[in-house]
Specification:
21 strands; Jelly Rolls; nine-stranded antiparallel beta sheet; globular; 57% strand
Amino acid sequence: MELNADFNKRVVVHSDQLEWLASPMPGVDRRMLDRIGGEVARATTIVRYAAGSKFSEHTHTGGEEFIVLDGVFQDEHGDFPEGTYVRNPPTTAHTPGSEPGCTIFVKLWQFDMDDRNQFRKNMADELGAPVNGVATAELHRDLRETVTYSHLDAGATLETEHAGGFEVLVISGSVTEGGDTLGKGAWLRLPDGAKLSATAGDDGAKLWVKAGHLPHAQPPAV
């Protein structure tokens, strides 16, 4: 399967307008944003766990990173409440699920295969002091990518350049970028060479941003 697989194009997906698709596990549904591959795939997805649902134990051969958008994600390593950012690098394993139910934004098979840096962070706890109405936390940085989380006051603009493209998830509020209004749940991908300029709406915005990673995009090594 290929979905939004041309990384040289600007892509906007309003995820709240997508239907939920059933996964192989009962109670776990998905909204696919981009994908190269079948059940084993280089994928960017919003996943919803019904209360009491879980996946069977599995190893993330190509790594997994996710944000908890609502509810509480759980596995044998602990409880991960709303606002948690998690990186599970290649070779890590777990049995994910959620007793109360949750929704996560998850990326699979997008790691450096030698990465072994596993961690979790409360994104809001990492925020620095605001500058011109924008407070930003650097969540992760390596030679391939930089991952940040930003709070924008109403009318504030997040403007940045970075070789290797951008990916943006609107966690709350709204922004205007490139003539598009992106509300909660909207996902934007900008190709290598593009600049990001996102201006918050009247309620401000919370944005997760990954930069620099698109030249490394490739199918899973299976």
